[in-house]
């Protein structure tokens, strides 16, 4: 009977050892599969990011062209206005200086009316 028990125990130990190997292989496979899934996800994320960045750059390029044209037009208008103001200043400079000197040297005090 003890030989039979011993053989039965040995069979159980062998089965336990085999089960441990199977569990270990399953764990290794699961770990490997998780790593692969993570790597695949990273690749998909990078591809998506690159796609969206490309779309954004295209959108930006299309819309900044209009902004640049408007900005150049506004700069031209501002430069024209500045030129007009400077020209008016040059034309009226002597009159302004005369009026200022007149006001300084010949003050006309007026009473304050409330």
TrEMBL record:
Gene Ontology cellular component terms for the protein in this record: vacuolar proton-transporting V-type ATPase, V1 domain
Keywords: Coiled coil, Hydrogen ion transport, Ion transport, Transport
InterPro entries: V-ATPase_G
Coiled coil: 31-88
Entry superkingdom: Eukaryota
UniProt record similarity statement: Belongs to the V-ATPase G subunit family.
Biological role stated in the UniProt entry: Subunit of the V1 complex of vacuolar(H+)-ATPase (V-ATPase), a multisubunit enzyme composed of a peripheral complex (V1) that hydrolyzes ATP and a membrane integral complex (V0) that translocates protons. V-ATPase is responsible for acidifying and maintaining the pH of intracellular compartments and in some cell types, is targeted to the plasma membrane, where it is responsible for acidifying the extracellular environment.
Record-given protein name: V-type proton ATPase subunit G
